[in-house]
Amino acid sequence: MLTNYFLSIAIWTPIFFGVSILFLSRKVSIKWINYFALLGGLVSFIVTLPIYQNFDFDKTGFQLQEFYHWIIPYRINYHLGIDGFSVPLILLTSFMTVVIIIFSWHSIKKNVAGYYSTFLILSGLMIGVFSSLDAILYYVFWEAMLIPMFLIIGIWGGPNRIYATIKFFLYTVLGSLLMLVAFIFLYLESNSFSIIDYYHLPISLDIQLFIFFAFFMAFAVKIPMWPLHTWLPDAHVEAPTGGSVILAAIMLKLGGYSFIRFAMPIAPDAAILLRPMMISLSLIAIVYIAIITLIQKDMKKLIAYSSISHMGFVTLGLFLMTPIGVEGGYIQMISHGFISAALFLCVGILYEQTHSREIDHYGGVINKMPLFTAFAVFFALANSGLPGTSGFVGEFMVIMGAMQENFWVAFIAALTLVLGAAYSLWMIKRVFYGEVINQSVSQLKEIGVRQFFILLSLAMLVLVVGVYPKIISDITNVSVEHFVQFINLTKIPTS
Amino acid sequence: MINLFQQLFLILPEIILATMAMVILILDLFLKDKRRYFIYVLSQLTLLVIGILIVMNRPTTAQFAFSHMFVSDSLAFYLKLMSCISLSVVFLYSRSYLISKNLLTGEYFSLSLFALLGMLLMISSNNLLLMYMGLELLSLSLYTLVALNRDDPNATEAAMKYFVLGALASGLLLYGMSMLYGLSGSLDIMTIASTISQNTLDPSILTFGLVFVVVGIAFKLGAVPFQMWVPDIYQGATTPITMMISSVPKFAAVAMLIRFLFQGLDSLAPDWEQMLLIMAILSMAIGNITAIAQTNIKRMLAYSTISHVGFILLGCVSGSVSGVSSVLFYVTCYVLMTLAAFGIIVALSTDNKNIELIEDLKGLSKRQPWVAALMMITILSLAGIPPTVGFYAKFSVLQAVVSGGMVWPAVVAVLMTMIGMFYYLRIIKLMYFDEPKITSSFVVAPGFLWALTINTGGILVLGIMPQTLMNVAALSATMSL
């Protein structure tokens, strides 16, 4: 096997830049820190492109593997590798980091260097999660990721940030510690921490159920699935805009990705057994949370709840366990990454000027910011699943998959198209249309060039994926087929 | 059998240590206050020499001396070396603080060295009497050290409590030992082990003896339900003394645990494993939950210690070699983290303002960004979050426990760890998210800051590459069991 370093470079470049900014911050002015952070973000983005280039779409199994012994007594290795499920998410991560850095140029006033630094380090750690093939390596990235996010919400967040960030941290940690126990258990069964070894390990059903439960606790919190979702609205509302973007665009996807990577292939029989439960939880998230979304008064909270509802589609798609369902769930993850990020950026733009997120405090924004309103309406429509946008593709595929399964599942899932449109458009109507209702709205200024290009690039991506979803499904196709075949094989040992 | 000269060579470190402790005590009488620095240098040199001797004497197989009273094996090598290094770090961190409080006296150093002597003897003892003597030498030195600041009523009170409860524990331990001696007719741990394994002894008396021994050890370790003394002593003693009590003696306590339970009473493992399991889970639960309610930082660290002791006991519960090696690894990591945490508290205590309350750390990241970063790494490590060494410490214990077939204790341990994270996070919250209460521009001495940086760097580096230390710990455990 030819050795390559694409993945390592993609992981460690942003971390390197993140740490150097911290040391640089004492010497140079904020302007140069801004430039340096942008440089770091761009370089980190560019180094992820070779991953896409060198990835062979037609091969199953893990590619671009790197393997070094790390902690020999426990057979822990520095083992990286990717398949079709990792590539789009890695690119999304590094792209979003650039977006956040550009967006935050003037909006962060306090400890600017620290802010960029945490985001860059976080980006590297998340790419690490997406490319680890060793359970402990994965776990180290997964847990280490919490520290920057904890600091982002806690330092740069809103008034109730401390409650939110501690809740976020403890919720996530509880799940992941159980996952650690499951890893240790698997290690004792297979004498290895390699994920590939886990895939081929025969496990009896009751142990599979235990393992699946431990993974479920870790990943369902992250996604988040109902009823483990309560940390998310708090975290989103209190986080700074950049924090919300990274949380919605990437961190939630870690949960979905990890279901694909760990829970389902390692414990497939348990997954099949618990399918009705998982599908029900997903449907509850889709419908019940969508109804809750309708009554939100805070824009960020509204988008947060809508994220939970949309992530319900991801889990629904995955647990349909058919190619079209998995593919749809996956495209939904990517699409939600763009759309929710864009919506949080929109709220951030308004918040920067008026310091309010209450829907009631707005009205008639279109009179002052027509261009911005165009973008906001576009993203809101995409959020409600307008055909032609990426939001439609994933939901449509999942609903189609559900129809093969059961009419009523598809029917309930499809309700969200109505509810999604209702909450998105109702918010748009109240915030953007009508007469200018107060002083602060009348003082709003149109978005600048920087913000325009950020929103434009996201809108383009939403359109491209919406019109031509093959751009993603080409990458994932082979992996999806392989995955679906694999999880439908039993792993219970025959004795 | 090795000859007398070789036997003396085996305990050369202890001989030098005893001599130097006495020399320092006498020398102190003839030194003027300005020259006190010399004693510090001399103590550090003594530790250096002992450390070198221990490394040079590294045993390949177990060697016995003085009719099997004294054993020198790889376990002893590992724990002795770690004790010397950590005591040296304690001296390093304590110096400036003790100078400012006018406590840098010959007594401090000679008592500390005597305590170390006691620990080294405990670590190397293969005999109940020697074990007890070492323990008493250690304990008496520590009682006195706590009372060193005799004008401080808190310290005196703490010393009194420590003495009374410590004496009680010693009494219990001695009682258990006497039962074992009465049954087996020998003080030699190996002989006791072989007598017990013949299965001819009266089981009820044996169990009583075992219970008393375990209780005595639990008292010394500070495991629940024998933890009452820990918070009071931690709070009452002067911070550098607390740093010493919380760090170095843990090696000796672990040695006692291994020598007694794994080498001596191994055939009673099913009995003591249950006791240790209950104590471990209680320690983790009560330590972590009670720590949440604390406002005094030393008290909080005391409860944190109790929870860590719970983890150490949990490692022993698995009863396997991998359990022992995880315990050795854990205790080393624990001491490394504790030294860093107390070191930072000492560094932040100025002449007129001690860090007493957790609140005093408020806004530290704005006043002292570097120190705050070091503290954050230490705290994350205590909480067991990767990529710090605290994670691998917990990981290796959990691995040993699960491999012993005990999944539920591991799950409980994990839940308790999560509860513990709350109060650790609160410290980070105070340092990073809150505004400073005091805005004094006080500077930590650069030398001290470097030492702390190296210590915390060790936490990170070991967190990224824990393999070497793990291997050494595993080797020590494998070769001596």
The SS-based structural class of chain B is: mainly alpha
- Estimate the mean pLDDT confidence of chain B: 87
> Could you give the distance between the termini of chain A?
36 Å
Strand content of chain B: under 5%
**Which series of helices and strands of chain B comes N to C?**
HHHEEHHHHHHHHHHHHHHHHHH
As laid out across the biggest beta sheet of chain A, the strand order is: 1-2
Number of strands of chain A: 2
CA radius of gyration of chain B: 21 Å
Shape verdict of chain B: globular
DSSP helix fraction of chain B: over 70%
Main sheet of chain B: which strands, in order across? 1-2
Question: Total number of helical segments of chain B?
Answer: 21
List keywords for this structure.
heterodimer, A: 495 residues, mainly alpha, two-stranded antiparallel ribbon, globular, B: 481 residues
Report on the structure:
The complex is a heterodimer of chains A (495) and B (481). By secondary structure, chain A is mostly helical. Chain A has helices at residues 6-24, 30-46, 49-54, 86-103, 112-131, 135-144, 146-156, 161-190, 195-199, 205-222, 231-238, 241-266, 268-273, 275-294, 299-320, 323-354, 365-368, 370-383, 390-405, 407-432, 439-442, 449-467, 470-487, and strands at 63-71, 76-82. Chain A has a domain at 274-488. A two-stranded antiparallel ribbon of chain A has the order 1-2. The longest helix of chain A has 32 residues, at 323-354. Chain B is mainly α. Chain B has 21 helices and 2 strands. The radius of gyration of chain B is 21 Å and the shape is globular. The A-B interface holds A 70-74, 136, 139-140, 143-144, 146-147, 150-151, 154-155, 161-162, 165-166, 169-170, 173-174, 177-178, 180-181, 184-185, 187-188, 210 and B 380, 385-387, 391-392, 395-396, 398-399, 402-403, 407, 410-411, 414-415, 417-418, 421-422, 425-426, 428-429, 432-433, 465-467, 470-471, 474.
